[in-house]
């Protein structure tokens, strides 16, 4: 893997790498569980036409080494807050899935934000049962990363065999497999973490959800629209949780339209 374009040090000394493209107002992209910065490969070039884009490797991936042994989601809040602070100018923070959970936590730890775009986080909401997580961990321990990933995609995202086959055929499958071991711990952390108060998120916030996404995603975005003071909900018609690859132009356009909407308060 090539070296990151930019390095920031988290408060605990962990190196956090990101890939920079474009010019304009900064936007930091935070990928979800089992991914790395390449999850944004189809979205980032479209955003780079209007923004200075930073696609981050979260700790434990690529240019951002793991600093275990104990995982804590709060460390990741600090990581992303450090990246946002480092830009030196008001920055948009965009998170997908578990990366959107982290964006929420980071938003409460920086004063350098212009706004948030949150694609289907689910803090405090169970997305999978413990028995499934335990079985995924058993498969990972046995070296069956592909079996674990298929199991979790089916259970968490409710993908059928045809949908999983499409994902497996995609360019991101090979880079996702080595990161599947992060999924059980992050799914547990997501369920047990609850933001201190959504009413502290006073910045402009766009909530994105796919029309075909699982019930937990629709549940959270509906709740968040009521709880986050300055939020707007947009449904991506015909899309599910994986629109970063199935409809990158739709995701990028939603972000651009929200940021540059003259009627946005």
What would you note in describing this structure?
With 265 residues, the protein is α/β, with parallel strands linked by helices. It is built from 11 helices and 8 strands. The chain has helices at residues 44-47, 73-86, 98-107, 130-141, 145-157, 161-169, 173-176, 182-192, 215-227, 243-246, 248-259; strands at residues 6-9, 15-21, 25-30, 51-56, 91-96, 113-119, 205-210, 231-236. It has an 8-stranded mixed beta sheet with strand order 1-2-4-3-5-6-7-8, with helices on both faces. Strand 3 (25-30), helix 1 (44-47) and strand 4 form a beta-alpha-beta unit. The longest helix has 14 residues, at 73-86. The N and C termini lie far apart (41 Å). The model has no long low-confidence stretch (mean pLDDT 93).
Topology:
Elements: E1 6-9, E2 15-21, E3 25-30, H1 44-47, E4 51-56, H2 73-86, E5 91-96, H3 98-107, E6 113-119, H4 130-141, H5 145-157, H6 161-169, H7 173-176, H8 182-192, E7 205-210, H9 215-227, E8 231-236, H10 243-246, H11 248-259
Parallel strand pairs: 3-4, 3-5, 5-6, 6-7, 7-8
Antiparallel strand pairs: 1-2, 2-4
Features:
265 residues; alpha/beta; eight-stranded mixed beta sheet; 11 helices; 8 strands; 40% helix; globular
Summarize the structure.
The protein is of the alpha/beta class.
Structural class: alpha/beta
> What is the general shape?
globular
Order of secondary-structure elements: EEEHEHEHEHHHHHEHEHH
| Beta-strand proportion | 15-25%
What order do the strands of the largest sheet run in, or round the barrel if closed? 1-2-4-3-5-6-7-8
How many H/I helical runs? Answer: 11
Biggest sheet layout = 8 strands, mixed
Task: Round the Cα radius of gyration to an integer and report it.
Answer: 17 Å
Number of strands: 8
Task: State mean pLDDT (0 to 100 scale).
Answer: 93
Give the termini separation: 41 Å
Spans of 5+ residues with little confidence (pLDDT < 50)?
Answer: none
How much helical structure, as a percent, in the residues? 40-55%
């Amino acid at each position: 893997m090539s070296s990151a374009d930019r390095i920031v040090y988290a408060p605990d000394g962990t190196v956090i790498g990101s890939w920079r493209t474009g010019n304009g107002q900064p936007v930091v992209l935070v990928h979800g569980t089992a991914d790395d910065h390449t999850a944004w490969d189809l979205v980032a070039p479209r955003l780079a036409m209007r923004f200075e884009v930073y696609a981050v490797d979260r700790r434990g991936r690529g240019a951002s080494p793991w600093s275990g042994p104990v995982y804590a989601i709060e460390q990741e809040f600090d990581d992303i807050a450090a990246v946002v602070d480092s830009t030196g100018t008001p920055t948009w923070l965009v998170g997908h899935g578990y990366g959107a959970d982290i964006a929420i936590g980071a938003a409460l730890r920086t004063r350098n934000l212009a706004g948030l775009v949150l694609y289907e986080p689910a803090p405090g909401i169970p997305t999978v049962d413990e028995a499934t997580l335990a079985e995924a961990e058993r498969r990972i321990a046995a070296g069956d990363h592909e079996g674990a990933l298929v199991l979790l995609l089916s259970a968490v995202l409710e993908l059928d065999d045809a949908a999983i086959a499409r994902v497996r055929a995609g360019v991101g499958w090979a880079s996702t497999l080595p990161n599947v071991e992060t999924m059980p711990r992050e799914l547990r952390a997501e369920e047990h973490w609850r933001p201190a108060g959504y009413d502290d998120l006073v910045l402009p916030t766009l909530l994105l959800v796919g029309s075909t996404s699982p019930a937990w995603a629709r549940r959270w975005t509906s709740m968040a629209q009521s709880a986050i003071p300055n939020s707007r909900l947009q449904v991506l018609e015909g899309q599910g949780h994986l629109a970063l690859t199935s409809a990158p132009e739709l995701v990028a356009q939603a972000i651009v339209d929200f940021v540059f909407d003259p009627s946005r308060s």
